[in-house]
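#onboarding

Welcome to the new folks! Below is a worked example of what a typical request in this channel looks like: someone posts a single protein sequence, and someone else replies with the predicted structure as tokens. Don't worry about understanding the tokens yet, we'll cover that in week two.

Example request:
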Amino acid sequence: MNLKTGILALLALTANTVFAQTNQQKDTIYEFTAQQCIDFGIKNNYKVKNAIVDMQIQEQTNRQYTALAYPQINGSLGTNYYPNVAVQSFPNFIAAGTYGVLEKEGVKDGNGNAIKSPTDFGFINAAFGTKWNGNAGVTLSQILFDGQVFVGLQARETALSFSQKNIELTEEAIKANIYKVYYQLVVSKTQIDQLDANIERTQKLLHDAGELYKNGFAEKIDVDRASVQLANLQTEKLRVENTITNGYLGLKLLIGMPINDSLVLTEKITEDQIKKDLLSQQDYQIQDRKDYQYLQLGKKLNEYNVRRYKLSALPSAALNAGYSKIANRDQFNLFQKGDWFTSSYVGLRINVPIFLGMSNDANIKKAQLTLKQTENEIDNLKIAIDNEIAVAKNNFNNAITTLDFQKKNMQLAEQVYNQAKKKYEIGTGSNTDITNAQTDLRVAQSNYITALYNAIIAKVDYVKAIGKL
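Example response:
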């Protein structure tokens, strides 16, 4: 094998490997029950992911509050160069002192006169300092008491629970939607089965009408009617299949599944499942509702906020300490010859708010009003929950009653169709009777599927309303 052939073979092998890997990725098949679908969705739905990130952000915010209670230590290292050392002017105390001594000792000048101090000694202009100085030090500060920090530390756990409850609320909403879409797609299998059965019936009817027409026992219009019915059923099946395909795409999007992956729904739904353990769950508690729990935590956080502003009116105290080394040089040789002088201090700082322009009072009242809003929301939510449960219960009762009625109606329509078909086959009925019976059967089947859809949605809404989803 020459070099060119070897390279081409290697490229072909690589391409086949990549193609196989791509196909393997596209051919990933998930066979899910409703619960597995929910577990996948909670893990991969972007809204749930962002809610979890919000909680992680809150954890870091809590760390910030905790850090305020810890000692704050800072180190510093620096140097300054003064091309022109600042000159300071001050009274000539040297001349004043010298004249004072001369006067006291009675010293006389060259003329024999006693020396007297002049009335104005003038000023001395001198540059104090060096061209270079360096400093290195460390400072420490520790809050001893601060009302806002104190409340912030107390509110950490509640703030974290608030974020956790938001995750649970998001998961509950995703869970409800997954249940609805999942079981609607499951029910769509029944709809397809019904359409297939209707198509099979119509195909047989078309065949029978054709044979009767050939033998002169039926008219051409009977064959045409059967053909139209068959075409309508096949068109309706295509429409339903397209709706189901879009439903699967929507479910994949909802649970965060790549569009190229295959999703197979393994669970079935029956009327007994829909009716099971529903209205027996009458002993609900409002505390079971996650949105109620969420607002209660929000109320507690607002109470902390009110307290924070109230405590901010109290004095705060902090301990401060510092240690440093300072060097002064005429040249840039800070770390060579010469001394480093030590400076240190320990201090206590107490800050007493006296008048803040009424801003703190405004903050307190604003926080109290926000708290009042949350309390109003809680009161309204209690009424809304009672109303939601009553409506959901009524809808579920009505959905079950309608489902039972439509099932019986569908069964009756099927019996009517079978009787019309038998009469037609023995020559005592007309093709019009069969057409009308089949139309009634399709309407009854469609109404039954709709009733089944509505019952599933009513069940999910009721369980969610009582906080048991």
